[in-house]
């Protein structure tokens, strides 16, 4: 049985469904929490222990980088991946400075599984 509690935050329902399907196929026992905004994510994780999170960069309200900073304060050991089609070096550097992974879109099974289990 998996001990992973995985947070998926993306304003695209299709992206959340795709990531959930990839994770569920690889680890049917993982607890998966979905949110469409950073604010919703912060409200949902209040009494949880998040071990892994995938965050979209561009979302309404709090962006993925700001959300990562807030999550790392609460879950300093969490493995966090920033998903984005914005491959600018500045975004990569900000992700690296936070100590989180940069995952370029489009989302693929290989990218998600390499991030989570690699």
UniProtKB/TrEMBL annotation:
Highest rank taxon of the organism: Bacteria
Biological processes, Gene Ontology terms: phosphorelay signal transduction system
Protein name, UniProt field: Response regulator
Record InterPro entries: Bact_response_regulator (IPR050595), CheY-like_superfamily (IPR011006), Sig_transdc_resp-reg_receiver (IPR001789)
Location of the Response regulatory domain: 5-118
Residues bearing the modification 4-aspartylphosphate: 56
Keywords annotated in UniProt: Phosphoprotein, Two-component regulatory system
PANTHER family: PROTEIN PILG, STRESS RESPONSE REGULATOR PROTEIN 1
Keyword Magnesium in record: no
Pfam families: Response_reg
Keyword Transcription: no
PROSITE patterns reported in the protein's UniProt record: RESPONSE_REGULATORY
